[in-house]
Design goal:
The structure is a single chain. It is built from seven helices and 17 strands. The chain is α/β, with parallel strands linked by helices and about 350 residues long. The longest helix has 19 residues. The N and C termini lie far apart (about 60 Å).
Length: about 350
C-alpha cells in the first residue's frame, strides 16, 4: 500500500523567479530611509538595476512591498529561538569540495562574526529574520551553526525522489551519520546534487521546508530541501544567472553569478529563503499570511524576485557588480559575495535588505 500524500509544505514557486514583482513607492522610501549607508569603491564596483521581463500571465496572488493587502500574522506556534540553531547538512549525491565550501561559507556568514564582513553583509540580512518572535517574546536566534554533516554519495534512495523520500533520506542520515537526533535545537538541510530529480523540482518548486514525521525519523524536526538546478533547469531555479530561451531575443541578459557557479549561486538564494521561513514558521503554525496553513505565504514569499532598492515594476532593484561583472548584494565571510532575495520586515511592514540605499 502506497503511503498517503504529504500535506503541501511551503515551497519556493518557480514561476515567481520569471515574473515582475510589485513594490510600491512607499516601501522603497521606507526602506531607503531606514537602511544604513554604504560606501562603494567606484573603481571596482558599480550599482546596476537589471530589468526583468514584464509579467503577462500569472496566477500569483502575492503582493510585494508595503501594502495594506499583506496580512502577515502570528499563529502562536514556535520560532527557532534556541541559540544556536544547529544545522545538520545532508549532501545527497555527488558534490565537489568547492561547492560544499561555498554553501557552508554562506551559512556560516549568517551569524555575527569577528572580524565582521563588510556592509551590506549576510549577517545584516539575517538580522531581519531575528526580529520575529514567539508568544513569549523570544526572537529567532542570530546564531546559526553547522552542527554536523553527512554525505550520501551512493544515492541510497535513488536519483528520483518524492517528497516523502526526502524524509527517508533524513532517516538514513541520522542512522548513519556521526551526529545525534537533535530534536531540541536541530534543523536538517537536505541538498540534492544536479543529477537528482525531485518531485515537482523545476516544474513547480526549487525548494521547500516542512517537518519530519515521528514515524519516519523518530521526532518532529524542521527540515528543508533545496536542489542544484545546474543541469535540469538553471533558467528557472538559478534565475537571473540563466534565462529561458524565449527571453533571449532582445530581452535582459543573464547576470554573472558572484562565485562563478550558476547552480550553487542560484541555490544559495533559495537556501536563504527556506532558512528564513523555516526559522519563523518551523511547524507551519507561526508566522505566515493567508488562512490555509497547508499553503502559507511566508516572509520569503512576499519578497521573491526583489534584491535591492527600487525592485518591482520589472526590476530586481539596485544591486552591485564588481569589476569582473559579477552581480551581488551581500558580503560574507572569507571575501565571499552573494545575491540573495530580500525578506519581509515585521518592523517596516515591507521587504527589506541591508543593501537598501539612503
Amino acid at each position: 500500500m502506497s503511503p498517503p500524500p504529504l500535506p503541501l509544505p511551503h515551497v519556493v514557486l518557480v514561476s515567481t523567479f520569471l515574473f515582475i514583482f510589485l513594490l510600491h513607492h512607499s516601501a522603497t522610501t521606507a526602506l531607503a530611509s531606514s537602511s544604513s549607508s554604504q560606501t562603494l569603491n567606484t573603481q571596482t564596483e558599480s550599482l546596476i538595476n537589471p530589468k526583468l521581463p514584464p509579467r503577462t500571465l500569472s496566477s500569483s496572488k502575492k503582493f510585494e512591498g508595503s501594502s495594506e493587502l499583506v496580512h502577515l500574522r502570528y499563529h502562536m506556534g514556535p520560532v527557532l529561538s534556541s541559540s544556536p540553531i544547529n544545522l545538520y547538512l545532508i549532501w545527497y549525491g555527488l558534490w565537489n569540495k568547492p561547492q560544499k565550501l561555498l554553501i557552508k561559507d554562506f551559512i556560516l556568514s549568517l551569524s555575527p562574526s569577528t572580524p565582521t564582513a563588510p556592509s551590506p553583509s549576510v549577517s545584516d540580512w539575517w538580522r531581519t529574520v531575528s526580529l520575529y518572535t514567539d508568544q513569549t517574546g523570544a526572537n529567532v536566534s542570530r546564531n546559526v551553526l553547522i552542527a554536523g554533516e553527512y554525505a550520501d554519495l551512493k544515492h541510497s534512495h535513488g536519483t528520483q525522489l518524492t517528497r516523502l523520500d526526502i524524509q527517508q533520506v533524513i532517516a538514513t542520515a541520522v542512522k548513519s551519520a556521526p551526529f545525534p537526533i537533535d530534536h531540541r535545537n536541530g534543523v536538517y538541510l537536505v541538498l540534492t546534487s544536479q543529477d537528482v530529480v525531485v518531485q515537482e523540482f523545476c516544474r513547480a518548486v526549487c525548494g521547500f521546508h516542512y517537518f519530519t514525521f515521528p514515524s519516519m525519523v523518530g521526532y518532529t524536526i524542521p527540515y528543508a530541501w533545496i536542489g542544484n538546478s545546474a543541469k535540469q533547469c538553471p533558467e528557472v531555479c538559478a534565475y537571473p544567472f540563466a534565462i529561458p530561451g524565449y527571453m533571449t531575443g532582445g530581452g535582459p541578459g543573464a547576470l554573472l553569478p558572484p562565485n562563478r557557479d550558476i547552480g550553487v549561486d542560484g541555490m544559495i538564494s533559495v537556501i536563504a529563503h527556506e532558512l528564513a521561513e523555516l526559522s519563523t514558521n518551523p511547524l507551519v503554525n507561526a508566522w505566515y499570511a493567508g488562512e490555509d496553513p497547508t499553503a502559507p505565504t511566508e516572509i520569503g514569499d512576499l519578497c521573491e524576485g526583489l534584491y535591492g532598492t527600487g525592485g518591482g515594476g520589472g526590476y530586481l532593484g539596485q544591486v552591485m557588480r564588481d569589476r569582473g561583472g559579477r552581480t551581488y548584494n551581500l558580503n560574507g565571510r572569507s571575501g565571499r559575495r552573494f545575491l540573495v532575495q530580500w525578506i519581509w520586515s515585521p518592523v517596516l511592514q515591507a521587504c527589506a535588505g541591508p543593501n537598501a540605499l539612503d
